[in-house]
Amino acid sequence: VAVLVFGGLWGFWGVFFAIPLATLVKAVWGALPDLEPISSDSSAKS
Known about the structure:
The protein has 46 residues and is mainly α. It has two helices and no strands.
């Protein structure tokens, strides 16, 4: 999938760098903290 996406965007260089770019994106995505939804209960209100 990464080869098709990056290749479609940037041609030969996208195909060439598809796997390293996909690995970088996956590493950054995994390093981001998980976002938790804001609670809607009334105890959080003043």
